[in-house]
UniProtKB/TrEMBL annotation:
The lineage of its organism: Eukaryota, Metazoa, Chordata, Craniata, Vertebrata. It comes from Nyctibius grandis. The keyword Electron transport does not apply. GO terms for cellular component: plasma membrane. Residues 20-147, 156-279 form the C2 domain. One of its GO terms (biological process) is cellular response to calcium ion. This is Copine-8. Pfam families: C2, Copine. The keyword Phosphoprotein applies.
Length: 578
């Protein structure tokens, strides 16, 4: 269900099953009604992008959008990394998508020149876009589509090359370390600043970048740090496929000097440190010009360690519990709950936005929690009897035992609270984050993982304290989901999400990304089909949880417990009476 990849985007509901004439048992689940034919990995490169920077070249990023089936709106699927100072980027970060032969999946690739750390795309220079379908990429020769970038009238915006590769389901990763000796000196005043670039070969003989090492400054004999890469990314699980390694001398202006290259394969590398894994670095131009040319140095494999990656479900099978906590915003900016304009309006005929978001996310998470008891908290209200303001109160009115039974119990407590508390303010997140963090800090052995769902109308008052709480919580077995309801601008929430710029507080960065934010309004179905729109919401907010969960377990070196043996009921011998 959950691989080790980042989310594979929105799997669209309402698909017909792939197997005709199959008997179905029980209710038909519209969301899992068809198994993806396969997953494909999209690699993006550009050539001759527009130059928008005055003193240097553009710093490009690629943003991929997919089109929703119902209303045709474009929704962001993912972003690559930013590559500084180049008009010809080969992006390392890939997009992994479900591929359905029988569906038209419209794609839009937008390119920007990144000018600041803001995640808001309108703050950056637009470099153009390309429209296509996933089928168009997969169906091109060698599954390689080359198309002009358009979108800026009267300008040639360059071309984009998108390559699709079907993923082999390979769960192994390798930890490798390399060093080099006597590399060519490329810098006028000092020695070279070398780094390695790894490419795997594709079916059509072209190459796709899959890893860059760090730069080691001012040496011709560098030792690079060990790095981990999945076998899938390195060779797509094909052990004899060519791996090309290029050696460059780093230059500040982005025009890195080519020192030379060599080729190898996973099978060769897997022999580990040996005479077979010392490679001559060859510069073909030099070799053609100079008769006495031997090489431009050598690169040696120092270590090669295979690790089998474990999945999210390995831990769940081994008994890890997911604990779910809800925190609801009771600040006055939500509006008077008795008025239809309020975000907390208690409509007898349908759920309000808070209720819908809570139910959508909660109903999926509750499957991973065996006792189905969920703490439910509120913040930003004045409480009876004395009207004191609280940023961490139990919705069921029992601070010693804030647990509610099931999502229905949480909903009941939420509606009861709306009748008894007074909406007030300010909007402080830190107390509820710290509340869950206290529990998470007491069980760091991998047996439990905590997910906090905060539903809010947005404008946060304690940004500095919240950032500090998140940075501290990033060391704990917990994740935070924020659903923003109502019409507010959610810029602060995007900052907390940390997908583009890792969140920091007082100079300390979060150990890992633990926050996922979505605006509820992106999921409101104009036709009133809340079932599918809420399924999409749940899918999107929960998509990052498995990877966040795994990153905690990896950093702590926690392996999944062995799955208990399958239960076999005792055999009752039937006594037959004579």
């Amino acid at each position: 269900m959950f691989g080790l990849e980042k989310p594979a985007g929105q799997q669209k509901p309402g698909r017909s099953g792939g197997f005709p004439n199959m008997a179905s048992v029980g209710g038909f689940n519209v969301l899992s009604s068809s198994i993806p034919a396969t997953k494909v990995e999209l690699s993006v490169s550009c050539r001759n992008l527009l130059d928008r920077d005055t003193f240097s070249k553009s710093d490009p990023i690629c943003v991929l959008y997919t089109q929703a089936i119902g209303n045709k709106e474009w929704r962001e699927f993912g972003r690559t990394e930013v590559i500084d100072n180049t008009l010809n980027p080969d992006f390392v970060r890939k997009f992994i998508m479900d591929y359905f032969f029988e569906e038209r999946e419209n794609l839009r690739f937008d390119f920007y020149d990144v000018d600041s750390k803001s995640p808001n795309l309108s703050k950056h220079d637009f470099l153009g876009q390309m429209f296509c379908t996933l089928g168009e990429i997969v169906g091109s020769q060698g599954s390689r589509l080359e198309k002009s970038i358009v979108g800026i009238p009267g300008k040639k915006c360059g071309t984009v090359i998108v390559t699709a590769e079907e993923l082999g389901c390979c769960r192994d990763s390798v930890l490798m370390q390399f060093c080099a000796n006597k590399l060519d000196k490329k810098d006028f005043f000092g020695k070279s600043d070398p780094f390695l670039v790894f490419h795997r070969s594709n079916e059509d003989g072209s190459f796709t970048i899959c890893h860059k090492t760090e730069v080691v400054k001012n040496t011709l004999n560098p030792v690079w740090q060990a790095f981990k890469i999945s076998v899938r990314a390195l060779c797509n699980g094909d052990y004899d496929r060519t791996i090309k390694v290029e050696v460059y001398d780093w230059d500040r202006d982005g025009s890195h000097d080519f020192i030379g290259e060599f080729t190898t394969s996973y099978r060769e590398l897997s022999r580990g440190q040996s005479q077979f894994n010392v490679y001559e670095v060859i510069n073909p131009k030099k070799k053609g010009k100079k008769k006495k040319y031997v090489n431009s140095g050598t690169v040696t494999l120092l270590s090669f360690l295979i690790e089998t990656e474990v999945s999210f479900l390995d831990y769940i099978k081994g008994g890890t519990q997911i604990n779910f906590t809800v925190a609801i915003d009771f600040t006055a900016s939500n509006g008077n709950p008795s008025q239809p304009t309020s975000l907390h309006y208690m409509n007898p005929y349908q759920l309000n936005a808070y209720g819908m978001a809570l139910k959508a996310v909660g109903e999926i998470i509750q499957d991973y929690d065996s006792d189905k008891m969920f703490p439910a908290l509120g913040f930003g209200a004045r409480l009876p009897p004395d009207g004191r303001v609280s940023h961490e109160f139990a919705l069921n009115g029992n601070p010693q035992n804030p647990y509610c039974h099931g999502i229905d119990g949480v909903m009941e407590a939420y509606y009861r609270s709306l009748k008894s508390v007074q909406l007030y303010g300010p909007t402080n997140f830190a107390p509820v984050i710290n509340h869950v963090a206290r529990y998470a800090a007491s069980v760091k052995d991998g047996s439990q993982y905590f997910v906090l769902l905060i539903i809010t109308d947005g404008v946060i008052s304690d940004m500095a304290q919240t950032k500090e709480s998140i940075v501290n919580a990033s060391k704990l077995p917990m994740s935070i989901i924020i659903v923003g309801v109502g019409p507010a601008e959610f810029d602060a929430m995007e900052e907390l999400d940390g997908d583009v710029v890792r969140i920091s507080s007082r100079g300390k960065f979060a150990e890992r990304d633990i926050v996922q934010f979505v605006p509820f309004r992106d999921y409101i179905d104009r036709s009133g089909n809340h079932v599918l729109s809420m399924a999409r919401l749940a899918k999107d907010v929960l998509a990052e949880i498995p990877e966040q969960f795994l990153s905690y377990m990896r950093v702590r070196g926690i392996k999944p417990s062995p799955a208990p043996p399958p239960y076999t009921p005792p055999i009752h011998v039937l006594q037959t009476q004579i």
